[in-house]
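Deviations from the work plan: none for this task. Representative record:
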Amino acid sequence: MEENRNIILSAKDVEVQFRVRDRYLTAIRGVSLDLYEGETFAIVGESGSGKSVFTKTFTGMLESNGSVTKGSVMFHGKDLTKLKSDKDWEGIRGAKIATIFQDPMTSLNPIRTIGSQITEVIEKHQGVSASEAKAQAIELMERVGIKNAADRFNEYPFQYSGGMRQRIVIAIALSCHPEILICDEPTTALDVTIQAQIIALIRDLQRELKFTTLYITHDLGVVANVADRVGVMYGGQIIEYGTVEEVFFDPRHPYTWALLSSLPQLGVKGEELYYITGTPPSLYNEIKGDAFAPRNEHALKIDFVEEPPFFRVSDTHYAKTWLLDPRAPKLEKPAVIQDLHEKIKKMTDKGGAFHVE
Amino acid sequence: MSNEYTDREVILSIRHVDISFDVGNKKKFVAVKDANFDIYKGETFALVGESGSGKTTLGRAILRINPCSAGEILFEGKRISGKISREEDRNVVRNIQMIFQDPAASLNERATIEYCISEGLYNFHLYENEEDRVAKVDRALQSVGLLPEHKSRYPHEFSGGQRQRVGIARAMIMDPKFIVADEPISALDVSIRAQVLNLMNRLKAEKNLTYLFIAHDLSVVRFIADRIAVIHMGEIVEIADSETLFQYPLHPYTISLLSTVPMPDPLVEKERKHIVYDPSQLDQSGAARSLREIRPGHFVFATDLEFEGYEAKLEKLEREKA
């Protein structure tokens, strides 16, 4: 099924380095990713895993001390890593690839009205008149769920709640009809009840406007809700990817196991929660072997010597771990995430702790 | 069943507490309205709500940071809100400690870990001599899984999880009886969260601590809390022990919160209904609401009419689960 779909963006062996004082930090260590048209791909990882940095290469938004040192990002026949000036990026950043960031307050200008911030973008990108832009802006505000949009057009960001501000950020991002929408932790700064609404809004808009969504998140619950496919990042690399069902129900990389196992939803009261020991690797140093090996209780000798390649699990599911090598010992995933679906179903079915009616 | 609640030793009582802020033009904003509950010695009591619900405000009132505009707070039977003697004030500061959400923001970045942790000891002269102080710091560090040699480092040299451990060590060194933990894991990565929760549970058992655990995430609270209070726009809408709240949630706001906990299962999650809280379902007659005990230890904020509705719902749930 996947082969028949159009690839809209293709990243190949991307490496990103930052110069910090006199040292180089390799934040992204050879990441490849094909995004299919219309899908929702979620990149999940902890802070420092490189998930934001990687996607910033799609919009040329790396901090000034960082640069793509290897690899390519192909989009409509253009290698985005070759674009340098803001002028080169015109027509792509914001127009074809738009981003929604975590904190809506930092994306909006606090001393300008909501309306002017939306119309500015519409006027600039579509070259329409001010009155036409205003009409479009109000329509968009209504579309993202702002009630009395015409009345609230002239209000300032501080007069909006956090959830409503994020709706405005979404409206601005969608005002240019982007082909790819990057959602960088779009709900982390929001309350849980608002989070569900924003996620539903993005999904509805995606169905209606048919854009491709790239989610960046550390929250596996959000991933389960939104994603068609998932990539797990650790130490500047994608270490496992597959359909959302494959990654949740048949994870193969020990880091994916660990991430799933440490979810508090799976905790049993009175027992210790599973946790990952140690800390993520320093990206200043060259990483030998599997970056997760020092924290991995299942690590093999080879994990400390040689970096594993991607092994194929299915046509859609690949994992970068020596455990999938035919010579490796056979290991079961941890007990706490075995029968994950049955466990969660029990929690949400009638009689379960998370069942509601 | 009722004895279980009446026989337990109360460590902290919140008695009809209102907390309001002046917002100019002689107007007041009431952030917490008529909060009224007890916390028992040795339990983890969770206060769950969204941002702006007043949960942090109430936590800070216990620490005497926010004054109560009505009601009182008792700690071990003694009033600690309002005007109290200097000696009693010091007693509160010593016995009630806080763990903050963002460990990076709550530690002095120019001070060494040793100083950060010793600060309380210095302020209260809780050490006999230098040797004793250093020994206490070492013990506090070890109790949170850090090493004595970390003493000379600065907060920025630590990871988020380690910094939160320092924040916990800083509270523990005062040998407190009660800890207000305000979203202690929200700023941490998933894998680190579990470590900090385990640590808090272990310390609680070892030192017979009582926690007020302030959070917005019910999935975390379920794992750590003995009892849970749900707060919405300054009002406590439901209190119950943890399992009861999950098995028999009554207030529509509690139900909406439960429905929005994301579950790590794509098949379940895609089917799940998220229930949006709709206050218009409530009794609109204008009748007064109060927190009423519907079963021993299970309280719900309701008018007479709503209370009848909750009773009927609860009976139905009990029949189904029996």
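Chain B has a mean pLDDT of 90.
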